[in-house]
Amino acid sequence: MKAESFLFAGVTLFFAITAAVYGWLAEEPAGLAALIVSFLMSALISFFLWTQHVRRGQRLQDRKRVRIQEAVGPLGNFSPRSYYPVLTAAGSALLGLGIVYGLWLFLIGVGVLAAGVAGFTFQHNDLGS
Predict the structure, then answer these.
(1) Contact between 48 and 4 (Cβ < 8 Å)
(2) What is the pTM of this model?
């Protein structure tokens, strides 16, 4: 994650320089605020990736010469069939449409989105057994 950290550090530097120049030349506070928030978000991502690199060390993808046999094994637990991504996407779409068309559709979207997120969260919990 070292390379990704440096990539986002470059993005952070870009937003810092752009915000400084924009703040010096422009008189609009909204653009400056957006650039400062972009700077802070990219700095947060860069910091997170760097701390993960320090904590976990070098990944297999970071090494130049790695054998395929070293990466053998399970990568994670992935659900083969889940309808919760569709439910979450529908909730997000309804929520966005609710901003345009009215509060009633927005509230329906919040409910559908909450059901989708709850399903993602608890789909692999064995609460019944």
Answers:
(1) no
(2) 0.60
